[in-house]
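Input sequence (261 aa), recorded before submission:
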Amino acid sequence: MTVGITRKLNRTKPHRDALFKNLVTQLFQHGTIISTHEKCKEASRLADRLITMGKKIASDDQNTTKSSSLYLPHIQSKLFLSGDNSKLISKLFNDIIPVFKNRNGGYTRVLKLESRLGDRADQSILELVDFLPVKTNSTEMGLNKGNMKLWLLINNIVKSNHLNDVKDITWKNLYKIGQFKDKETFSNDILQITKFLKLNENNTNDWNESKEIDNVNKIIEKIYSFIPNKCKTARINEFQKKGYVIMDKRPERPSPEQQLH
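Predicted structure, token format:
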């Protein structure tokens, strides 16, 4: 197995380590960051490892001291914990890790953006999956940044004339987002996004709360009744129509002796 393959980013190791520490610290502090695509990918790998280590500490009830002495110093060494980030470890264990207790991986998401205007470098958004709520009472507008993928998916549904016109891949992605979230919270997130998009993007005041709640309930019902393998089945049918043969397992290779004969 090849170990240690990583992007050098045209930096020395101390500079690169400091860069990733800063990116992951800001990710845990704010829930989402924007940087070049390569930096986001490498910071994503580090953030996933740190969350996995934190979950091992949080889940080890019988031998917490041993787990803490093994993993906690490594977590602390990969973060900047001074100044505004002095309580970041507490936030990691109290706010971030409990959200991912049912996930076995994939704690971060990288979404590509348009190239940067100055040097045309590829930009991306790095965000924690399912971490930030859409609506909070602490912000002036009641909306928080984050959940970019959810915003894009709901925007597709808002622009569709009917739910049946929405593509299966959209329902599949919504199913993947909602399977680890509370249904009531997920419904509220979708409602708030729909309200913002219709009132601000469409520049209209036509908003019927009861009607939109019914529409959101239909969306939720569609999401949780979605069959994840439906898209896979559709692709298989498409390949079969073109004459391809779909096999259940990879055929066994003939042995060297059989190849000689």
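Checked by second reader. The longest helix spans residues 37-59.
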